[in-house]
Design brief:
By secondary structure, the chain is an alpha+beta fold. It has helices at residues 3-8, 13-21, 33-43, 45-65, 97-109, 129-196, 202-237, 261-271, 273-293, 338-405, 410-444, 450-457, 475-483, and strands at 71-82, 112-128, 243-247, 299-311, 319-330, 460-466. A hairpin with a 7-residue loop joins strand 4 and strand 5. It starts with a helix and ends in a 9-residue tail after the last helix. InterPro entries: OMP_efflux, T1SS_OMP_TolC, TolC-like.
Length: 492
């Protein structure tokens, strides 16, 4: 990359370095978020394509620059000539017979001969506005490609983080559904036993069966979501993992820092790579207009050439050489209106790029504002979801007590069971929504990089989430539920 481009895009220098050097990183072995992110930077096909495209655009700049540098061309040929008819020339009466015979001999015998020629030419552009604007256009394309490459990397970072936390989200939801299925299954067994001894009616058994079937359907759906989440992560990284680190309960839940929505909007306008790419597109379109106008300008070039020719034709000896040095100029006077049409076309493209920039700017501002609001709401939602677990636990205990004394029926108990485990699942959803939305806010503000991923990675614990479907729920799930206020599994 040229120093000019490197200086213009200095804010993205660390990000671009991470992209261009990530292929030299060693494959990660520990399956935490940061190492999986590095695997994605090494193996993701979309990012590899963006890198190759960036290199292609850089090469295009060198292609354009070549038109302003000296051009040297050489050509040559070797030709065998054969004449099938020759002319004879009538001689005046005053010429002698010997001279006439000699002349006729030349015309009649020289019908096969070989020629060799060589040409060498060098040119140097002295004034070529079209070529100069093509170089300028190629440089503006590099500027735009820097931002597009940065946007591709940031999108990969958020995609990997979202896929990672979707797995953890699906795993926690699945464990809640497994716990729910087991608890309601035991409730169903108790209902059957009570029916057999005549304590309850068959309708209560059927209610328990319906609730159990619904919990089973919820568990199957959760298993499907977990399997799909596995596949998404594999698609992004090209690798499978035996397990990943879990998210700790001590994760800080706080407002974005600084807690000022206008700050995040300003950062997005100044740093969002998609916005900057569209802004660079305006400059690229503006150069396109200048390139079209350059079609009306003259071109001036210096040239020098050397020519050599030789032949073995009869009566010809030696060879011919010549050389030229000079300056040539060309001025397009009328091109059928194509130059004016190109100027109009470029003007419309410039106008279009300006609207594209404004659209991207407005979209980014809206997304930043929405994400900031969502993160702020997530902070309160997590706390509310946690309190909902405590409330639903108390409600379940009260409902069970009422059922034992006959003031509540089994439907009330089953609904309370479902409400509790729904609250546990919703709590997990809220925690992961907070993390993903926080990272998405940083992405829209142009502040998402490997360091931001490392900060989130510090929230993970050494507990491993296996990439195999749990059977019946793990004891850790119930212990964790106890810690956040959930009751022990019924019948345990």
């Amino acid at each position: 990359m040229r120093l000019a481009h490197w200086a213009v895009n200095a804010p993205f220098r660390p990000l671009l370095l991470a992209v261009l050097t990530s292929s030299f990183m060693l494959p990660a072995h520990a399956a935490d978020l940061i190492n999986i992110t590095r695997d994605a930077l090494n193996n993701n096909a979309a990012l590899a394509s963006a890198r190759a495209e960036f290199s292609s655009v850089e090469a295009a700049s060198d292609v354009a620059s070549g038109a302003l540098l000296p051009q040297v061309n050489a050509s040559g040929n070797v030709v065998h000539n054969q004449q099938y008819e020759s002319q004879s020339f009538a001689r005046s009466a005053g010429q002698g017979a010997e001279q006439s015979a000699g002349t006729a001999g030349v015309g009649g015998s020289d019908d096969r001969f070989n020629t060799v020629s060589l040409s060498l030419e060098a040119t140097q552009a002295l004034f070529n506005e079209v070529a100069r604007q093509e170089v300028n256009q190629a440089e503006r394309q590099i500027d735009q490609q820097v931002y597009l490459l940065a946007a591709t990397e940031q999108q990969l970072l958020i995609d990997v983080a979202s896929a990672y936390f979707d797995i953890l989200r699906a795993h926690e939801v699945l464990e809640a559904r497994l716990a729910q299925e087991r608890a309601i299954g035991r409730q169903l067994e108790q209902a059957r036993e009570q029916f057999e001894v005549g304590l309850i009616a068959i309708t209560e058994v059927e209610e328990a069966r319906a609730s159990f079937d619904q919990s089973r359907a919820d568990r199957i759906a959760a298993e499907s979501n977990l399997q799909v989440a596995f596949e998404v992560l594999e698609q992004l990284t090209g690798q499978r993992y035996a397990s990943i680190d879990a998210l700790g309960d001590a994760m800080p839940i706080a407002l974005p820092t600084p807690s000022d929505r206008n700050y995040w909007v300003e950062q997005a306008i100044e740093r969002n790579p998609q916005v900057l790419a569209q802004q660079a597109g305006i400059e690229l379109s503006r150069v396109g207009v200048e390139l079209a106008r350059a079609g009306r300008m003259p071109t001036v070039q210096a040239f020098a050439n050397y020519q050599y020719a030789d032949s073995d034709r009869d009566q010809v000896s030696g060879y011919d050489t010549s050389s030229q040095v000079g300056v040539s100029a060309n001025l397009p006077i009328y091109t059928g209106g194509s130059t004016s049409a190109r100027i109009r076309q470029g003007t419309f493209l410039l106008e279009s790029s300006q609207y594209d920039f404004e659209s991207q700017r407005r979209t980014t501002i809206q997304q930043v504002r929405s994400l900031y609001t969502q993160v702020s709401n997530n902070v309160e939602t997590v706390e509310a979801r946690q309190q909902a677990i405590v409330s639903n636990r108390s409600a379940l205990e009260a409902t069970r007590a009422g059922y034992e004394v006959g003031t509540r029926n089994i439907v009330d108990v089953l609904n309370a069971e479902q409400n509790l485990y729904n609250a546990i699942a919703n709590y997990a959803e809220a925690r992961y929504d907070y993390v993903v939305n926080l990272l998405s806010l940083r992405q829209q503000a142009g502040l998402l990089d490997v360091e931001a991923i490392e900060e989130v990675n510090a929230w993970l614990t050494g507990d491993q989430v296996n990439f195999t479907l749990p059977e019946g729920g793990s004891p850790d799930t119930y212990q964790r539920a106890m810690e956040i206020g959930a009751p022990p599994t019924p019948g345990a």
